[in-house]
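Work Package 3 (structural annotation) set out to generate three-dimensional models for the target panel prioritized at the project kickoff. During this period the team completed the workflow that converts sequence records into discrete structure tokens, so that structures can be stored uniformly alongside our sequence database. As a representative example, we reproduce one entry of 215 residues exactly as it appears in the project archive.
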Amino acid sequence: MDVSDLDPSKRELLESVPVDYPTERLRFSGPRGDARHHLDRETLVERLRALPRAPTELGTLDHIVARTPEHERVSLHTAHLGVTTGLEGDRWATEPKYGREYQLATTRTDFARTIANGQPHELHGDNLFVSLDLSKANLPVGSAVRMGEVLLEVTPKPHNGCKKWVQRFGLAAMRLNLDPAFAEQHLRGIYFCVVEEGTVRVGDPVRVVRRGPEP
């Protein structure tokens, strides 16, 4: 059977299907992307490398997005982040298979904007969009940041994307995210968990208060 007639697994998408695989065939529930906005690897690399360096110590919270159980996206200006509840209104709390290590999907705003290439930033499916260096070198596992009233800690779970992300932004983006030359930049993002709960607001400073032991 021709691969274009299959619904490939994530591993097959990464390793065996051609880069021009028609991603609109991928089946899932939730918002879908527009393949006309997908960028090829060469263009992605060029645009990502042209971005200014992100702050390493003090950044900004740019967007807050809750993902509802009905697969909708709700942009918030102010939100409560709880130790056991995560982002108020987000479906994480209703999906017990995901532990606290998956509590807050977080991505770097300019990376997300570049990869989206004109599509809405909410399409990424992340909760927090920040102007801060999220690379392994700057925020290894166990690092902590203060965001508004909240203290967040980097969890060990990799944020590598899924088939939904491939459909929305293309195979080139997914494969680049896992390429050894880019993997430690965390193009897709990282996961935080809440250590001290409270309120966050768009525009809040995001300050690195501790770096984990892993370089």
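The chain has five helices and eleven strands.
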